[in-house]
């Protein structure tokens, strides 16, 4: 009786592994999804000020291709832990699709319109302000260049913020409308 009550550890381990194998894959996919979302957020850490942070389709597509690449790399290193051939092929294929789709969308900007473009450009310009303002520059020419970059980027950020507000309130300007320029 005692032998029946205490199962063979090897059999128990195999049953546990086979019964929870899909759970391991779900955990893997949750890890990839969480890491992809975290990478998307981390891309904003080098923005100069918080009001320069806008949702960016471009950064979303970048996070998508990084998540796809990460799934491929991580599964490649952990194949010994994941033995379901069909699931592994599906993850590799999904990773390749995410990688290709993300790169294609970043490079083509096919989904990015006026407002989305400006919302992506503001954090980009903000990074230029941050790095230009905080770099340890000693050459006076480079210092002057950095100062010019800071001024230009701040003016363009203000201009884009104005256009975003105007387009969201009134729609696109009429054809032939001139650029207002910074501060106007």
Question: Which characteristics define this entry?
Answer:
184 residues, mainly alpha, 7 helices, 73% helix, elongated, disordered N terminus
Structure report:
- Helix 3 (21-42) packs antiparallel against helix 4 (57-77) and helix 6 runs antiparallel to helix 7 (140-170).
- The protein folds into two domains: 21-110, no CATH class; 113-184.
- The chain has 184 residues and is mainly α.
- It contains seven helices and no strands.
- Helix content is 73%, strand content 0%.
- It is elongated and about 60 Å long.
- The longest helix is centred in the last third of the chain and has 31 residues, at 140-170.
Shape: elongated
Distance between termini? 89 Å
Q: The biggest beta sheet, please? A: none
Counting DSSP H or I runs of 4 or more residues, the number of helices is 7
Q: Domain count, please report it.
A: 2
Q: What is the average of the pLDDT values?
A: 89
Summarize the structure.
The chain has 184 residues and is an all-alpha fold. The protein has helices spanning 2-5, 9-19, 21-42, 57-77, 85-108, 114-134, 140-170. It is elongated and about 60 Å long.
What are the SSEs and their pairings?
Elements: H1 2-5, H2 9-19, H3 21-42, H4 57-77, H5 85-108, H6 114-134, H7 140-170
Helix pairs in contact: 3-4, 4-5, 6-7
């Amino acid at each position: 009786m005692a032998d029946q009550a205490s199962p063979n550890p090897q059999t128990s381990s195999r049953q546990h592994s086979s019964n929870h194998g899909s759970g391991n894959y779900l955990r893997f996919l949750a890890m990839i999804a969480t890491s992809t979302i975290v990478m998307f957020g981390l891309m904003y850490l080098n923005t100069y000020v918080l009001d320069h942070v806008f949702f960016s389709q471009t950064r979303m597509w970048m996070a998508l291709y990084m998540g796809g690449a990460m799934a491929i790399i991580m599964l490649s290193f952990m194949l010994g832990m994941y033995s379901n051939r069909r699931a592994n092929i599906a993850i590799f294929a999904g990773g390749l699709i995410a990688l290709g789709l993300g790169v294609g969308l970043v490079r083509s900007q096919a989904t990015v319109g006026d407002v989305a473009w400006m919302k992506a450009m503001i954090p980009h310009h903000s990074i230029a302000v941050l790095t230009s303002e905080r770099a340890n520059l000693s050459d006076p020419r480079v210092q002057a260049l950095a100062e010019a970059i800071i001024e230009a980027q701040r003016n363009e950020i203000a201009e884009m913020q104005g256009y975003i507000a105007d387009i969201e309130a009134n729609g696109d300007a009429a054809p032939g409308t001139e650029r207002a320029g910074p501060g106007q």
